[in-house]
Write a structure and sequence with these properties.
Elements lengths: L15 H30 L4 H9 L8 H10 L13 H18 L8 H17 L4 H17 L9 H44 L6 H35 L23 E5 L6 E3 L4 E2 L8 H8 L8 E4 L4 E6 L2 E7 L3 E2 L9 E2 L4 E3 L5 E3 L6 H5 L5 H9 L4 E5 L4 E6 L2 E7 L12
Antiparallel strand pairs: 1-2, 1-4, 2-3, 4-5, 5-6, 7-8, 9-10, 9-11, 11-12, 12-13
Helix pairs in contact: 1-3, 1-6, 3-4, 4-5, 5-6
Length: 433
Amino acid sequence: MNYLQALEYLPKSDTEGEVLTTMHILLRNVGIELADRYDKQLTKDIGPDWLEALATLRNSHLTMIDPYFVLSEPLKYPDSPTRACLPHGADFYNKLDAALKVRNCWYHHENSELSLKMLNQSVLTLQVFGKAAQMALASRCKSILHRIEQIQNGSFISEKDDGKQTLIGQLDRLKQELEGARSREKKANDDMLVAQELLDQAAISANPSTISEDEQSQTKLEVALAMALEEKERLEYLVESLAIAADAQAPVEEEKQIGIGHKWQGPIPDRKVKLVALKDDLFDDALKKFVAEEFGPTSTKSISKFRAIVPPHSTIYLSEQGNAVAYLNGDPIFIGSLSETSAKDSEGVIGFFTPNNYVLRINGDIEDVKTGQTLRAAIGPVKEEIGSDLLLLRPNGGLLKITTNGLIACQVRGNWMPLCRVDSQDWFPDHLR
């Protein structure tokens, strides 16, 4: 295939002859480059007579470097061996189809005008195809697009231009170089002023009569200490964040994502229960049992509020977290939550979780996620050892929850594990009943 030599050509002006010449040579290069790729691979895969065999199969004479052949063959025939030489997928074949349309448009003289503007559009399409096919075509298109831009903005000067045009171009280039030199000179002067100021400051700092060595050392130590403390806080926060992420995301209470009486978002809970008429409870027909006791002593108060929204004996869909959904006028509506999360399924944790979430910090602080308040700030330093004791069990800190009977738990691989127990007076006010 030594005769397959691509030609380098860039337009020199916005004339019909230059536009036609540029596009014709570019399309020839498309044929040459793809033909070379096809021949190298298919000669290896099929044999040197692959083109003759393909022509017999298509019952047509085929010219290897014909742009129409190299573009249409893999596009129109799913069984074509040329497809093995190109990328695959609908997106690529769309780009291949666009390139074939460019070829057909120019070969069948469908363009109403022959201008650099029209040429620019076609070259852009071929460039996109060339990039997708990983062809040198993309680089050739880039050079042509750059030349078109130069011709259109007047920065390109042809060798055939007369002396006056050449002189104007030279003057413009000299003007640009002069402006660049002035800009660099100004920057150099600014840099010199900054350097001089730094030298003056260094001279003052070096003067022992102005600042003593002890004062300089103390200042450096203070700066270093401040930086170290800042870095320590940053690393502590990073470790805590990683610990929380490693355990699991903080439980998100569904009832806080949507207001009571609003349309429910997401899948409807599977569990079906009915609102009992004679007491504040729900009944599960499938399990033949009342439901309130599963969610703790405050659940009956929540159920009593359901009556303002739905009548007795209404069907209610209940999630594992105790969130209740009922259909009103054909729409699923969130009617409230039984508030306390059951912890009975967690290993070693018995009781019901309160709605609160906490973070154990590496410095020993226990922080309420919702308010940002620390236990130290809430009840004073009387029980600071709680955080210290928890750090012995959870050195990296992390997410905590607490049951209504004061059992603190952490999450490990999706399960809540007990850590220690606290009395209500040693915890955040009103968080334990």
